[in-house]
Known about the structure:
The chain is α+β, with helices and mostly antiparallel strands. It is 29% helix and 30% strand. A hairpin with a 6-residue loop joins strand 6 (182-191) and strand 7.
Amino acid sequence: MKTISFAILLxxxxxxxxxxxxxxxxxxxxxxxxxxxxxxxxxxILDSAESLIMNDKFEEAKLLxxxxxxxxxxxxxxxxxQLIVKCNNSLTPKPLSENDSxxxxxxxxxxxxxxxxxxxxxxxxxxxxxxxxxxVSGEQRDKKTGDYLTISGEIEVVNAxxxxxxxxxxxxxxxxxxxxxxxxxxxxxxxxxxxxxxWRLQQMDNCEQGGVVDYVDIYF
Length: 220
């Protein structure tokens, strides 16, 4: 009787061990989600972001990276981190210190002229610090004709003879461009050449084109 009971127990144990298990694999054998995600990052997106950065379009590059990869800052890829750092560094205003004499040297009021309105009655452009950056705003107006020149945006001293400007310049002259306003927006350069005592806008073409140019000058 004991021999029969032992045989039955042994058969039951073997049958139980041979049943398939429904348990999922342990975490040690599964591949982490983050590593899968990192390996599948398409280089085309990174190439596009890098191209935008090379063209100083840091805001667009950052938006692209954040749109495609909301957790881009946590990605374990060297290239992704480099692009994010470049965007953040370029978009973060660099504070002006009291020792930055070159930048601080142009703070204040400057004469501003457009040759169509005249050099004898200059307008005024004021350069000041705003949010740790140099900004300029000013205008020249002819009350009789209504002709005007306005300027507003960020400005930076490249060297004593060159200024980098990013903003908007607009003028309207009754006998130029059919009396319509001519507006320029974006990045421009002002230079002092040939010993002149003013920085002149280098992108001179008026909206009328055909060789018509604007001499926009900011005086020392």
